[in-house]
Design goal:
The complex is a heterotrimer of chains A (about 350), B (about 160) and C (about 750). Chain A is α+β, with helices and mostly antiparallel strands. Chain A is built from 14 helices and twelve strands. Chain B has two domains: about 80 residues, Ubiquitin-like (UB roll), CATH 3.10.20.30; about 70 residues, [2Fe-2S]-binding domain (DNA polymerase, domain 1). In chain C, the strands form seven sheets. Chain C has a seven-stranded mixed β-sheet, with helices on both faces. In chain C, strands 9, 10, 11, 16, 17 and 18 form a six-stranded mixed β-sheet that branches. Chain C has a five-stranded mixed β-sheet with strand order 19-20-28-29-30, sandwiched between helices. In chain C, helix 5 links the parallel strand 13 and strand 14. Chain C is globular and about 80 Å long. The two termini of chain C are about 50 Å apart. The chains are: A alpha+beta (about 350), B alpha+beta (about 160), C alpha+beta (about 750). Chains in contact: A-B, A-C, B-C. Chains B and C meet through helix 1, helix 2, helix 3, helix 4 and helix 5 of B and helix 1, helix 3 and helix 15 of C.
Chain lengths: ~350, ~160, ~750
Amino acid sequence: MLDFSYTRARSAEEARAAAGEPAARLLAGGTTLLDLAKCGVERPDTVIDISHLDGLSDILVDGTGASIGALAKMSAVADRADIRHAFPAVSQSLSLAASQQLRNMATIGGNLLQRTRCPYFRDPATFPDCNKRNPGSGCAALGGVTRNQAILGTSDHCIATYHGDLAVALVAFDATVRTDRREVPIDAFFLTPDDRPEQETVLDKGEMITGLTIPATVAARQSTYLKVRDRQSYEFAAASAAIGLDLEADGVTIRDLRVALGGVATKPWRARTVEAALIGKPVRPEIIAEASRLAVEGAVSHGGNHYKIELAPRVVARAILTVAAHLNPDLNPALGETA
Amino acid sequence: MTRTIRLSLDINERRYEIDVEPRVTLLDALRDHAGLSGTKKGCDQGQCGACTCHIDGQRVLSCLTLAAQAEGRKITTIEGIAAANGDLHPVQLAFIEHDAFQCGYCTPGQIMSAVACIREGRTGSDEEIREYMSGNLCRCGAYNSIVAAVREAAEMADA
Amino acid sequence: MTIMEPRKHGSSADGAVGGRLSRFEGRLKITGEAVYALEYPAERLAHAVLIQSTIAAGLVTSVAIDDALAAPGVLMVLTPEDDLGLTVSADWQGNRPEEKPYYPLPRQVEFNGQSIVAVIAESREQAEEAARLVRITYAPQEGVASLEDPKAGEGKRLDQLSVAWGDAEAALARSPVRIEATYRTPREYHCAMEPHGLTAAWEGDQLTIWEPSQWAHGMARMYAEWFSLPVENVRIVSPFIGGGFGSKGQPLAYGAVAVAAARKLGRPVRLAVTRPQNFTSYGGRAATRQTIALGATEDGILQAIVHRGASETSVYADVPEQTGAATPILYKVENFSSESRVVPVNTVSPGALRGPGKNPSAFGIECAMEELAHALGMDPLELRLKNYADRDYQSGKPWSTRMLREALTQGAEAFGWARRSAAPRSMRRGNKLIGWGIGCGTFPVIRAPSEAMIRILANGRVQVVSGSIDMGQGTYTILAQTASEALGVPVEEVDVILGDSSLPGAAIAGGSMLAGSITGAVHKAAQAARDELIGLALSEAGSPFRDTGANTLAIAGGRISAREDGPSLTLPQLMAALGRDEIEVRRNTLTDDVQSAEDQKKAWTTMSRVQGPTMGDYSMHSWCAHFAEVEVDEDFGTVRVSRMVSAFDCGRLYNPKLVESQWRGGIIMGIGQALLEEGVIDPRNGRTMNANLGDYLVPTNADIPDLQVISVGVPDLNASALGGKGVGEVGIVGVAPAIANAVFHATGKRVRDLPITLEKLI
């Protein structure tokens, strides 16, 4: 790591003021910032430690939804019984991420801002070409190793996957990101790379996430997060899906559906076309499977990541069927023991 | 000259005054400045768990924690989990009994993780132990024995 | 939380050879007191960091170091411009080229990730920062990224690896049932949890190096040759080593750099190789490709095996990964042909990684045997038993011991193989496909001499002193057991001192050759110490046994007596009576004709006295059979090993508790090899793109089910003094094919290139 100065912020205001400086970085859990500083990707000259600030780690859950402070730890949120009850997919997305040690460190706000695992992004000494790090320099990933690169939301300038899990669940359930200046719907919070891969969110310099709001819905309560990966644990997703489902009184017809994908796109990816195609339809494996293919509409293969085009819809379909079987156990035989 | 800052760290219920650059991680502060080399460096990038220690009772990775961040917190390392009279922690004993290590390099991290895992109540089944011990890689492959040791130590803690 | 009392171990017999004694040095490891190489304190320590190349091939045309030199704390920058004054060392056999200079920081780049520059500063952080300020300019040349690079070509045939008997091509052509397939394994890495590195300190022309080592004496010799020192001047200290798996058996370029920097600076230097740098600072297992054709009769009698293998090597050394190593000895076959090639690519020279040669070789032949079984419609267990090798057809020699039949049958019994439904895709659990597969493994018994010293101290404690290494395989423990048994003293009275090239010489902790070798030396020394003690007790003036008329004395439980029920003395009492502070006995297992000082030095510091498995009257090997069950989620292509039973013939087990741990460790590495592990190389510049533990995936705890291991071995006194055969290497051999075969059985899809990742199954 390059040398930097360390300041422990005494208040959120002080932190925000200091963070406005060009090479200043806020330090919360440290799991992204210090990792990237060691890689040579982040080169802060000042680190402003906000991890000791009070009042930003509260977790409140009531009938209207959840409010989670930006400095709440991943593990603290994941392990809350009320979160598990009202937002199972949110809880699972956290529990299936990283390891318990990292979940004890990483904060919710920092988790949203984690940066891509693209190996070209993370190796600046070897690959100077990275539009994310160095706008206009090119994209070394194009034509390189692409197994974990994105198939959705890519551009000629960047194909780096957003690897976070939590944000996928949040996108599915229309959470709102609160900052010191505004509230932003989470889907609009994240940006696709287009011709500005360096701009990953709408946050302005010096703007600080203060928390999240997740509205309570039936779909959020009846939800799951399914993560598929090579290793059983401690790995990012090859493909994942956050699914929320509500059925009509007949126990078969889909009343509400939320679908979001992880591990396959440049940002947490809401698949509204799948939702639209299935609302009002009965839960039947072949119908679900066909509609789930819409999740990868417009997907672009770069060779090594081609399998994700096949895999992602299957993850979506399985997750939908899993929730459906949970809601209506009578569906189980028809669904082929998916649950 | 590079700037150093003076930190006062509370490690294993002892106070350590150390002068370090702000960028020094807790892991390096423990190993190179506090003389506590029981905490191991396996990757230095949050991917192996060998550097696991406890901050305020929670297991964390010291390689991705700045020493400066830990000031004012209660730090516990492998050197600090035996009883004051020297009696080993039940997890330590169970690790020996079940041969839950070979080369020993990941072991302090495994034990710190296991102590926390039991405290977190994540020992309900072997499957749960495996998942909650998966943040600690062991290349010698002592996983079966680690699960057995954690299971037994958890049962002792319940008894 | 309650504190438990330390529990007693299972049985008083645990202290003897064959007992389940808990790890002797365990307390040091579970308390953090075991000190590893980079943890030794040193006064005025300076810190070195490496800068590695970022191209596959080319010339370093300039290195701009002014900014780095001006950075805070920087002491020195070493580049290809600096002549460090080193000469090339001898190879493992002791053959040394004449005065050939050695440049650990070369101007010619031979692979991406090669060390080019080192920055030395007051602190590691300062050295790292300054390293970012160094600017290296290259004149790139065309490189070959990998074995599969179209530019790689066919490589060169290695005649010494060609094996043939009978007429394999003709017999194959005549065979009514034939299969032929090509199998591939990728570049794989050791990933020992302790990264490489060292601390080097000079005092005059005396050099001390704290470095994790699988072979202290051999490494001391190689450092001495680099720096033109007598080997006695170099001391390698390595009492604890955080895993090696074949990677820590020789000094490497970074070691030369650190030692040279320490000499130039006149200060101790520590160099910690970062985890990403570990992936290219030494070679892992080479990528391999092998084509196997099998011919058989319709009732499944093997008629011919034709094997053609290739492995990648570096552009500067021919290091074969012998895909034909297991092929000739697993089955009875009258017609055999094997050829191997090495293909130079721009990579660091491949190294030995657990089960070298045998491991990828078994992946080929053991997959091919199941493909043949499928073609025949025969149970793969039956096919293996039907073609059981009654002798070694390659050497023509009888087996010393070969309990592979028992491994297959007892393993099958424990696994429940008889309940297997033969057809692929015919077994399910919930929505998962279930598959069962078998893979056999083998590893040669490699014998080497060692030396050991036994000291009996006035306080009655016994010291076992050896320069051998414990990297987790259990040397401390089994040597305590060996000495305890041979001397008749309780194991609690024994201390074991290891891991230092200034101590008696020993075989490398590699190739599964150490345990058999060093237990022999310790046993010999301990028996001699016992004889000496008894002799003194019978002859010395002060001894109460002198005038008893006894011809000999018994030592048991740490007490010495003329008869079992007679009066006895403790060892301290006897030592006091003898007026001795210490009795020291040193013995080695070299033959009488090579006992000169020069012969001994060469024996401990080279491989020149190492004997292969067929150098005596017998063909000697460890054997195993793995039975794997996988669950496959066909929608996702994900494979989970849900159960394994593995049966081993490793001869006599010196400590079954530790042996079982090693076997499981090998199996787990094999599971990683089968499903996860693959060095991913950028085809454009040969860069390792997953050079870290988050992207190069080794198994986590969650990936591993309960692994049942069974010993079917019998003591093999041809293999070693105490009857054991090698344990550490064989465990991994055969695991990957067992899993690949199980995946085929589950899915009907034959994946012939490892690892079996999800995109190959969806």
